[in-house]
Design a protein that fits this description.
Shape: globular
Distance between the termini: 42 Å
Number of helices: 15
Strand order of the largest sheet: 1-3-2
Strand content: under 5%
Oligomer: single chain
Order of helices and strands: HHHHEEEHHHHHHHHHHH
CATH architecture of one domain: Orthogonal Bundle
Structural class: mainly alpha
CATH class of one domain: Mainly Alpha
Length: 394
């Protein structure tokens, strides 16, 4: 009796390799532009103004943070098929981990562990890379704690529970100046300054944005690597089985609760990474930034890009975050300067997002870069109709 070796998905591997090369080239171009080109004295002032108007360094860094968050949400929604409307809670927890362990917030303590501030500074000052890991695991723990009693629910009921979780956690931090007698968040005032990212170079000056960009590109690459490896592994296949038919997956021996909890834990871990990175990006932690609209915004990135497709989610996150953060305002300034009007295009942000989502659901439900399996499922009826029409034609 002879056995045949399983056929490797060479086309998928080759496609991923192309995307990885493309991502590396795009990242290298961005780094060279913001680290060197913008600081070159011979750069024409028109190019300099155009870059800073349409895609300033801060907007690029913020877009990469959104990409990290969207990739984490894609594991929960795109891979496992669990609708999560409270993902912003993990972003908030990760952000406050940075505020607790990388600032003078706990001024009555003096704990330093490879931090980036002088040793005599009060507070807790732990190295940024360690805080990333701490924030990720704290969020993963909260993901398991929240998911364990609720993942027996399905569909709309699970979405409502996650919605409640996403509303409770930000409110705890918003009113955390007196949390059972303790100050855990400084309330509405926030934690106004976190430690800078240690890069081993002093007096960066105008080069600081370039180093942050390089670090955020690296964190995004880590999330891409994790997502692709999980997708092709046994756990990823179990998530896809649950997404497509939970009953069939359980009959085939997939442990539903454990597999779902792992998706929540991994997705929450990414939320922690994004929260810590965002705190260093804005140099602080502010409770009003963690509202319900962020969860919907992240979900829209996943849906627009293509649920389950890593590269589609990156595209959707980058496009939506850029449009929301800088694109509309830059276009409004260009339009008003050219036509002499005074239209506030930034005020139409949610109108534009709503219109885009409606059009996507009507004409391209699978997203801009769809996952092949999901595309087949969504267009199964169309394929059956085509087969029926072919049979009639014969």
């Amino acid at each position: 009796m002879t056995t045949t070796a399983p056929v490797k998905p060479q086309n998928v591997t080759r496609s991923n390799r192309k995307w990885i090369i493309g991502y590396s080239i795009a990242g290298a171009i961005l780094y060279v532009v913001y680290q060197f080109l913008l600081n070159w004295e011979g750069l024409p002032i028109g190019i300099y103004d155009a870059i800073y108007r349409w895609m300033p360094p801060a907007a690029v860094n913020e877009s990469l943070v959104y990409v990290i968050m969207a990739l984490g949400l894609n594991i929960v929604v795109g891979y496992a098929g669990l609708l999560d409307l409270g993902y912003v809670a993990f972003w908030a927890i990760g952000g406050y981990c940075a505020g607790w362990f990388m600032s003078e917030f706990f001024y009555f303590l003096k704990i330093h562990f490879f931090g980036s501030v002088p040793a005599e500074a009060p507070g807790i000052h732990i190295n940024f890379w360690l805080v990333l890991i701490i924030g990720g695991f704290v969020c993963a723990l909260f993901g398991v704690l929240i998911g364990a009693p609720t993942l027996r629910l399905k569909s709309d009921y699970l979405a409502l529970v996650t919605l409640g979780f996403g509303e409770i956690i930000p409110q705890v931090f918003f009113n955390g100046e007196n949390f059972f007698g303790f100050n855990i968040s400084n309330g509405t005032k926030g934690i106004v300054q976190v430690d800078p990212i240690p890069v081993g170079v002093k007096n960066l000056g105008p080069f600081d944005f370039g180093w942050k960009l390089l670090i955020f590109l690296f964190l995004t690459a880590v999330m891409v690597f994790i997502s692709l490896r999980l997708r092709r592994g046994r756990l990823g296949r179990a998530w896809l089985a649950i997404r497509e038919d939970e009953l069939a997956a359980s009959m085939m021996g997939v442990p539903l609760m454990r597999t779902k909890l792992l998706s929540y834990a991994v997705g929450a871990f990414a939320g922690g990474l994004g929260g810590v990175a965002f705190a260093t990006h804005v140099n602080g932690v502010y409770a009003e930034r963690f509202n319900f609209a962020i969860s919907i915004f992240l979900l829209a990135m996943v849906v627009l890009g293509g649920m389950g497709n890593v590269w589609g989610v990156i595209l959707g996150a980058f496009v939506l975050s850029w449009v929301n953060g800088n694109g509309l305002s830059a276009f409004g300034a260009f339009y008003n300067d050219r036509f002499g009007t005074d239209v506030d295009f930034a005020s139409f942000t949610f109108l534009l997002f709503g219109l885009v989502l409606i059009l996507m659901m009507l004409f391209r439900r699978e997203g801009l870069l769809p996952e092949s399996r999901l595309k087949l499922v969504l267009h199964e009826g169309d394929i059956d109709e085509e087969d029926a029409s072919r049979k009639k034609a014969k």
